[in-house]
Description:
Shape: elongated
Largest sheet: none
Radius of gyration: 14 Å
Helix content: over 70%
Order of helices and strands: HHHH
Amino acid sequence: MILHLLAAWCCYTALAIRPSGSWDDDARGGIVLACALTIAVSALALLITVVPSVRRAMGPWWLAPPLTLGAVAAVRWAFGG
Length: 81
């Protein structure tokens, strides 16, 4: 799904940004933005996947990518943002 790829790219961006020091507020803002976008896109993908007609066609394992990406972004936001 395209939303999974978009969430994965945002999550990768959140993990790839490294602040230069404790003074680097721009990098921390970028981390927060990337994490927020990852969580928002993952939530949208999860909502689409939870619809009964979609779950019948795609199967329950499609719930794993948005949940995993959202959890990784939440942890990065909590400890690195």
